[in-house]
Amino acid sequence: xxxxxxxxxxxxxxxxxxxxxxxxxxxxxxxxxxxxxxxxxxxxxxxxxxxxxxxxxxxxxxxxxxxxxxxxxxxxxxxxxxxxxxxxxxxxxxxxxxxxxxxxxxxxxxxxxxxxxxxxxxxxxxxxxxxxxxxxxxxxxxxxxxxxxxxxxxxxxxxxxxxxxxxxxxxxxxxxxxxxxxxxxxxxxxxxxxxxxxxxxxxxxxxxxxxxxxxxxxxxxxxxxxxxxxxxxxxxxxxxxxxxxxxxxxxxxxxxxxxxxxxxxxxxxxxxxxxxxxxxxxxxxxxxxxxxxxxxxxxxxxxxxxxxxxxxxxxxxxxxxxxxxxxxxxxxxxxxxxxxxxxxxxxxxxxxxxxxxxxxxxxxxxxxxxxxxxxxxxxxxxxxxxxxxxxxxxxxxxxxxxxxxxxxxxxxxxxxxxxxxxxxxxxxxxxxxxxxxxxxxxxxxxxxxxxxxxxxxxxxxxxxxxxxxxxxxxxxx
Length: 477
What we know:
Elements: H1 7-13, H2 16-36, H3 41-48, H4 52-79, H5 82-102, H6 106-117, H7 122-133, H8 136-167, H9 172-191, H10 205-228, H11 233-255, H12 269-284, H13 286-297, H14 310-327, H15 331-357, H16 366-393, H17 399-426, H18 438-460
Helix pairs in contact: 2-7, 2-8, 2-9, 4-5, 4-6, 4-7, 4-10, 4-17, 5-6, 5-7, 5-9, 7-8, 7-17, 8-14, 8-16, 10-11, 10-17, 12-16, 12-17, 12-18, 13-14, 13-17, 14-16, 15-16, 15-18, 16-17, 17-18
């Protein structure tokens, strides 16, 4: 009799370490690319002859593409062999990076950026591949490595963008990641094993269209709010219209035999709370990812700005990358000491502390370093534990899609937080200038702290023990 080969058994014989290295290299290159582009925005705008609104829409397109494609990629990873899905995503991202590097017009750049947005799906896809190729004791540390890689790439991208731009054309910010992604694609072809699904299925394309339309309208409305106001008919129409479409999406998904995202799993407390925590953590972290760079680069004459460069901003964010990278693989060990709920409480409590210490940054700049280090604890422990909870509770055939949902709601939360923060800063400016006043920063920090406290409360409501959710009887085989 021929023995049955399970994914775990396959993983033990497969080059597990090489697979993990390919995933981290690809994710690092992609995340670093997106981070490095921010300091280069003026150069890119001039090179392609784009107006300020046009160049802003280029990067909004990337965000929208990522939010829309991630659930689809997650579902494909649930019902198809993950190896070809990974190769396809890497190929699309490489093509997008190449198009952006060669872009001579804003339209061509937009196409490249939208194709790159597909790379956000690398995170849930990596979660599924790690589950299939790593041993049981290494799954949690593998998830931690993925999160740590994303954390470190943020600081590294900001740190090296300035020196690169001082000696090379901005296009090298695309060419270097392009070469790494192509190398990862070629290596993945040879080392990543077949990762067949627990059961075959199909992609709910009707649900995908509804989700894309709903998310697109909501995110466009949010990103427009800082320019034309939250009460603008356009903003209100987009957000309310998007919410109506998303309500239709929910109704369709709850009736579908094979939904794009099985929303019935949200009836389980652990899954629902994990997604909720992801949203509020995304919202709360805007204080570090958006406001800290502004504080560092504002003129010294304001009394609280540091007059720093993009390189200085990277240095102030380095603690986030270092701490996040170091602690993320330790999440499993911490869970054995303090339990499932305890790990999430550590991560979300660190976010509250990270925001509160920034209230004193106007007189004590070193507090910015402390804040970003604390945020590293949130990213390392909080996001890794969110993935671990999904892997431990969701049926195997839904791991990637539910992981993708958690990252999508985090992205939406981050976008909402950034726009609310921008509105608060715009409402308090230094007299006779357009520079944000300290009162605006203080208000934004307080809002972020309140939201972060909500994340702590949600974490406290998590179950102390996790159990695998049975496959719903209506789920297609």
